[in-house]
Every structure is written in C-alpha cells, then in structure tokens.
Design goal:
The chain is an alpha+beta fold. It has 24 helices and 15 strands. Strand 13 and strand 14 form a beta hairpin. The protein starts with 16 loop residues before the first strand and ends in a 17-residue tail after the last helix.
C-alpha cells in the first residue's frame, strides 16, 4: 500500500500549553480505512490517543469494520394533514387536564410551537431517575404517550455500556493482569542482564513503569528498591490529582524543564462506569497509565526503553502459555471495533525498524550501539507524529518532534476530539484572548449544523480570532466523509446516528417539528446522546487539551411516535452492526445478544410506526397498545442492562441505572469542560392526528459547565448535585423550548 503521511501543522506563538494536531482530517480518515487490508499491527487502547498513523511500516488488524446495513426510509414528499401553527386552545384535546397545571407561558409555547418541554423538577421526590419511570407514570395519566427519540437512544447507551463493562470484567481485566505480570517479569530479566551496562537505567525504569501498573492492579511485586521508589512517586502523584507534574520515572536528573515529561495526573480519577467496583477502578488507572505516557523519539534513553519493551513483548513468558503480544492484541482488537484505532506509534512500527537495524533477535546491549541507534532514529523520524496531543509542549519546541514516540497501549482518535483541537487555542484565539476550551456545539457546527453555528455566534464564541476560518476547514473535511468513514467503528457510527436528530425538518414533517424551537430541542437530544457516548468510552477515547405494563381500556389511547424515521433507521443499523461485529469476534455473550435483539426488534417497530405516521397510513389497535406499554419495555431493558451482583439471583440493580451522568470532554488552562445529562423531564406534544390531542413523553436534560481539572466529576458527584437541587443553569439556548 502506498505510504500516506499525515501532514503536520505549522506552529504559532503560544504560551506553555497542551497541543493539538492540525493534520488534514480527510488524510487521517483515508489512512484509517486503507489500513484494513494491511498486516496485523499492534497498537493501543485507552484514553489519550488518536487514530493510527499511516505508512508502509504501519499495519492494522482487520478488526475495525463490521457490516453496516444501510436502511432506507419511506418519506412522503410533504406531510399531509395535521395542523398549522399557531394553534388555538379549543383545537387541543386534553389541554384542560387539571393534572397538568400548566403555566400561562407553557400554554402559550405549546400553542405557538405545538410542543413544550417542562423544566426539570428539583424536588428529589418527584424526579424521574430513569426514562422508564417517566413512561410508566404517564401510562396512568389520561394523556396518550409520545415516544421520543431521546428514550430509545438512551436504551442504546444502556446496552452499549453494559456490553463494555462485561467485556472489561470478564475478559480485559484478566488479560491485563496476566500481561502486566509477564512484562514486569521480563523487564526484571532484562534489568538483571543489563546491570552494569549503559542500558541499566533504561531497563530499571521499564521495571518501574510496569511496577506502577502492577501496583494499580493490586498485583504483588518484588522489584529493586529504586524501581519501587520511582513507582511509589508516580502513585503519590496520581493520588494527589495534580493537574501537571513532571513524571519521576521519566526524570533522569539534570534535565532542563524543556526535557521533562509533564503528566496530567488528574486524568487518573476514575469516572464513567469505572467507579462501580474496585476492579474497574484499578483497570481504569492502569489502562490510563499505559495509554498516556510517551517514550519520546527525540530522547535516546526513552527510545532505548521502547526498544527493550518491544523485545519484552516478544519474549515474555505468560501464565496461560499465550504470547504477550497475543494478550495485548486480545485487549486492543475488540476496542478497535468499539472505539477506533490509536495514532501513537506502537511495538509494531518500532519492531519493524528494530529488526532491520538491530536484527530479528538482537542482543539487548546492541541498543547501546550509537551507530545503530542513529540508523533507528533516522528511519523512525519518517513515522507520523500523533494527530491529537495531550502532552505538555513549550512554545519554542517543534510540536511533532516533541510528541513523536512510542506508547505501550495508547488511546484513540475520535472525530469530536479532532474538531475540538482545531477550534481551540493555539488554532483559535490569541495569546491575550485564547480560546482555552471548546463548546460542545462546535462538533455539531463542524458536522454541518447551521443552527449550532448561530448559537455559538450568539454566545460570542465565533468572535475568537480565526474561529470562522478553522470551522470552515473542518466543515469541509467532515462534509467529504463517505459512509465507510462514518461506519468504521461503533463510536463513529454512533456519531453518524446522531445526524438525523439535529438536521432541520422541512415540509415532510409535522408542523411542530418544523419550528426553530424543535430544532433546538433536537440539538439538545443530539448533545445528550453524545454525552452518553463520551461517558461510556471515557477511558479509550483520547481527550484533547488546549495548548496549554398492565391491563387497559378496550380502545387504546392514540399514542404517537416522534416521526423521525431516519433517526430510528440509523440507530437500528448501529444496533445491528454492534450485534454482527461482536458475534464475528466471538464477543457476543447471551446477555448482550438478548439486549441487542430486543432493542433491534423495538427499533424496527418504531421505524415502521414513524413511517406510517408520516405517510398517513393506518395504525392498528395492537400497535397502539404496544406504544401504551412502552414504559414497561423501557423498564425491562433498563433492568437487563443493570449489573447482577449475585448471578444466581438473576436480577439487576436498578439503583446503578440512574440516567444522570457526566463526562469531561476537553482540558485546557487548568480546567475541564464537563458535559452532563440530568434526569429526564416531560415533553408535551400536540399530535398532528385529528382530533389534535396532547401526548406526553420524556426527553433528556443537557448541561455544559467548567470545573478545575483536579475536580473532574464522577457520576456519583453529579447526581448528588442534581438531587440536592444545585444543578447548574441549563444552556441559555434551551430557553426556547424549556418553559417554566
């Protein structure tokens, strides 16, 4: 395959900051796609990474894609029937329901827009902690159900997060423990062999590196005192949650500040679903450690350490008899399908050059040969630098030179982090007025949402120097993506499934969906499901940093499904891709299979109903009954996606299934951008089927706020804030549809 080098961006004047890449995104995506036919590579996994660099020396396992079934939808040329806006009060059946107790402003919004969202309730006794609770409550009201896209996207999150937790607990954690033990033992063997040579310190620090991971995983270690001391210093810094400190293992003594490797130790705060058990917390920290620390190519000792690590991976003896490389791959490969590839260099790239320069089975001491090392450097410098960077880089340093290097199991390239990187300082803003953190709306604007841009403009975000130029750049790149790019893994396919949510709705849709208020409601829905995606993959996705039912009546209520067939179709395709991809990889257990099969069946039903609604086709009483008991289906799916403490009990713990969650999505200038999903709140929609009656459903509540880096939030912290009535203000732009 032809070598595709990702071009690096020119550096500008900045203060000391965390850098991002500026390569052309279309080159990145084409490199990812083209690598599917190459020989197996070996790369990374956790949170501080991007996609895999391209080149003749780089290959990737054919593990990224699964079949993505494109599902066509049947849309009318125009929506026939329905009402025109504004409505009059006497047109709406159920508006006088005394249980609603709507305010005058809510009634006005309902009549003007055909819908209204009620503010989230701050009283814990009245909060719906999950979507199923809301829908089960609505079933006992006199108002028919409105099935929202919010609720079904949330179910995919529940299934996805359960799937990932189970894979980690049953497969990845045991594999990581065995891999770490094997590499620690082999690194000790290397240290014993190299004691008294020029490579003694390199070998010792690799022992310390794997000792950190072993200690985080609770593995007993017996290592040289100096190695344990270095490891202990790293563990202290992790416990301190220091936003930025020099790594003790990387510090050899005598370095200037330019040469120190600074690490953000606040990243080791377990969050997402990793707070649920001690084992998951240990796994989170160890994988974060493996994913974040770079063996920089520009430094000889760090490169010698990387070369020793390549040989350790090749030669380590494991307890199961599998090779260390096989263990590594059995962790990495499934997460390629789930999240994507990494772009930091790995043992595969280094191994190819090492074999050419030092021989296939080199004596370890040969890594001290100055002539051979220079040949290695000369070849390795042609390899690409990472495309998303989370390392400390000084203004006077060349970004590529400073960040290029080896990571043991690095984190992944994701589109959202690339977009953020292109729209933050130093790319956007000035030294005097830097754009230190992005906004979530940046992602939607880059994906083509004009309304997202309008909101950013109203917020003053577009006033930053060079913002518009950079946005046009990434918009052009994103607009060029084909289906193969959007469906390269589950993460990207989830982003693809979001797009019908925030697309403007024209005359093919009912009047309430053509309003600007509904468009902003849909933006909130899209950002909420994206927050769930970031929450579920927080360990693996690289984070950008700025530089720096019961019985019923004989006649069923006329419930209504949010008529967005393309959203249901893309989510259905994503669910089918998830099932197929896991099955092909031998990763589809009975729990996940059952969850996905149930979700696929319901999505097929909702897709069918939404198309019939738009095309004015008959809906049977049986279908209406199924919609009436939608809350019961949601409850069963929520229970099925819960963790079971006692497998013999056969039930899940719904206390761990609260819908409120939080995820930090970007870091800069000592702060992090947090995205929060609160508890569901009520939406009232006037059905366009005559007689025009009120319907009731539940939607996400979405928050965005900033906290100091050492206070990165967990779900438990976020829920305590909500349940104490101390939620931050909702974004101003939600005022157009959330009416007090």
């Amino acid at each position: 395959m032809k070598s595709k080098k990702l071009w690096a961006w020119t550096s500008g004047l900045i203060i000391i900051v965390f850098l991002l890449s500026a390569c052309n995104l279309s080159n990145i995506i084409s490199a990812v796609t083209s690598k599917l036919t190459e020989e197996p590579a070996a790369v990374l996994t956790p949170e501080d990474q991007t996609e895999v660099p391209s080149g003749d020396l780089q290959g990737v396992y054919d593990t990224t894609f699964a079949s993505y079934p494109v599902i066509e939808v049947n849309m009318p040329a125009t929506f026939s029937g329905g009402y025109s806006l504004p409505l009059s009060a006497d047109q709406v059946v159920g508006l006088d329901d005394e249980n609603l107790a709507l305010s005058e402003s809510q009634i006005e919004a309902l009549l003007n827009n055909g819908f209204v969202v009620l503010p989230p309730d701050n009283d814990p006794s009245r909060m719906f902690s999950e979507f199923y609770q809301a829908y089960e409550s609505y079933r006992y009201s006199a108002i028919p159900v409105f099935v929202t896209t919010d609720s079904i996207y949330h179910v995919y999150h529940l299934v996805f997060d359960k799937m990932l937790r189970d894979l980690e607990k049953t497969s990845f954690i045991p594999l990581l423990n065995e891999l770490t033990s094997a590499l620690l033992n082999e690194s000790l063997n290397q240290y014993n062999e190299l004691t008294g040579t020029d490579l003694e310190q390199a070998a010792l620090r690799n022992v310390a590196y794997f000792t950190v991971a072993a200690n985080l995983l609770g593995i007993d270690t017996q290592v040289p005192e100096e190695a344990q001391s270095l490891a202990d210093q790293e563990l202290v810094l992790m416990d301190s949650k220091s936003a930025l400190s020099a790594s003790p293992i990387w510090t050899m003594g005598g370095e200037s500040n330019d040469d120190l490797l600074f690490e953000d130790y606040s990243q080791y705060i377990p969050r997402g679903h990793y707070t649920r058990s001690e084992a998951l917390q240990q796994y989170f920290k160890a994988m974060m450690w493996y994913g974040r620390l770079t063996f920089r190519l520009k430094y000889k000792v760090e490169t010698q350490r990387a070369l020793l690590m390549v040989q350790a991976l090749r030669n380590a003896q494991t307890s199961s008899g599998r090779t260390a490389i096989e263990l590594w791959q059995n962790i990495y490969d499934p997460t390629v399908f789930i999240v994507g590839k990494a772009d930091d260099l790995s043992f595969h790239e280094y191994g190819v050059i090492s074999d050419d320069v030092f021989g296939v089975n080199p004596d370890l001491i040969s890594f001290a040969d100055e002539t051979k090392m220079e040949k290695f450097f000369e070849a390795a410098r042609d390899l690409p630098a990472p495309q998303i960077n989370s390392m400390w880089v000084y203004i006077w340093q060349d970004r590529d030179e400073a960040t290029q290097g080896f990571r043991f199991m690095g984190q992944r390239f994701t589109l959202d982090q690339y977009v953020f990187g292109e729209l933050m300082y130093r790319k956007v803003g000035t030294l005097d007025n830097p754009r230190g953190l992005p906004k979530s709306l940046d992602l939607l604007a880059a994906m083509g949402s004009e309304e997202a841009y309008t909101l950013l403009d109203e917020m003053g975000e577009t006033a930053y120097d060079n913002y518009d130029n950079q946005l046009e750049k990434v918009k052009s790149e994103v607009a060029g993506f084909g289906l193969d790019s959007w469906t390269q893994n589950l993460y990207w396919s989830w982003l693809y499934a979001m797009q019908p949510l925030f697309a403007p709705k024209g005359e093919q849709y009912p009047a309430f969906m053509q309003t600007n208020a509904w468009l902003r409601k849909d933006i909130s829905t899209a950002l909420s499901t994206w927050t769930e995606l970031k929450h579920d993959t927080i360990l693996y996705s690289k984070q950008v940093m700025a530089e720096m039912g019961g019985g019923g009546d004989e006649v069923p209520p006329k419930s209504y499904v949010e008529p967005n067939p393309e959203a249901f179709a893309r989510l259905l395709a994503l669910a089918q891709m998830t099932r197929t991809g896991l099955d092909e990889r031998g990763l589809l257990d009975e729990t996940t299979k059952g969850n996905l099969d149930n979700l696929i069946s319901e999505l097929q039903f909702l897709l069918d109903i939404s198309q019939r609604e738009l095309n004015g086709e008959q809906i049977s009483d049986d279908d209406y009954w199924q919609l009436t008991y939608y809350g019961g289906w949601l409850e069963s799916m929520t229970l099925a996606a819960a963790d079971v403490e006692d497998e013999q009990m056969g039930g899940g713990d719904l206390n761990d299934q609260k819908s409120a969650l939080v995820a930090d999505v970007a870091s800069g200038f000592g702060n992090v951008l947090e995205q929060g999903v609160g508890y569901p709140t009520t939406i009232l929609v006037v059905s366009p089927e005559a007689p025009y009656h009120l319907t009731i459903g539940a939607v996400y509540t979405y928050y965005e706020f900033v906290v100091p880096a050492n206070e990165r939030m967990t779900d438990e912290m976020w829920r305590s804030i909500l349940e104490a009535g101390n939620a931050p203000a909702l974004p101003d732009w939600t005022n157009s549809f959330i009416i007090p």
